[in-house]
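Follow-up to my earlier ticket, as requested here are the two runs.
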Amino acid sequence: MTPKKKSKPVQKVTYINIRIQKVKQKHIVEQKEKADKDGVIEVRTHIKNESWTTEEVKYKWKTTEYRIPLMKLGFRKDANKGDILEVLNNPQQIVNKRIQELLKKLVNFYGGIKGGGRGKFEFKTARFKKKKNYGPKKKVIMG
């Protein structure tokens, strides 16, 4: 008999969830998860919006959540939630450029990241709509 090969134990990856917008379950048509090279998972949701004035129904895709591996931020499972939140709002300390750019984008567009949810690794953005930049204000001269 040949001896059984010992397989290496698979390490379970712990993710930090950053929720942009919470969607009611009844409005979700489907969800897709898209992972990139760095292990960041982008959760895209197909949403159904029904108009209450007409019988019109609109469908659209939205990015509702990002999942970032905890070890890519330089933390272990026993990390403090306050320390993680500090790094998420000040991403200059992160070595990985793609994750650093993603977090900068989230902070700039959605007004920062704050603690949210019941779990230790669940966070949400301060706003769920992007900030709009209308450019410099024009002065109107009357008279």
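Run two:
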Amino acid sequence: MPDYFAKVGFSFINSNISYSIEKKIMARTRIKVVRKGGYNGFALAMIIFIPLSIISFFNESANGCFNIFGGCEPPPSYYHYPRVLALVSTFSLLLLALPRPDSRKSETHGNKYPLGIIPGVILGIIIFMFSSILGFWYH
């Protein structure tokens, strides 16, 4: 019996010590939260649009066809995926950039985060269109 009480007592003390350590660590990390500024918003847009642009380049170079007189084969089923993903990503990022009433209270997003997303989306669309045209041109 005394061995059982020793184990229970040790586990109780151990759990209290670990709880207090976790509480102190959480308090310190809460203070050191890095706010996301304009560069992070711009980088988020580039992380999404650059891979889509590369995929679109190869998609257009492999499957692109333009003929006014209708001499092209129908495109494969996956042909429009990069465009649809770019469109969905654009609207998603622009929704993320909209100001929210609680954005001033946010610990992770600074006031300049949307100001980084908007130029990132604009530049991402330009890169996407340029890579699509290049892929179509190299066809």
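The only thing I checked on run two: Helices lie at 2-31, 38-63, 81-97, 113-137. Let me know what else you need.
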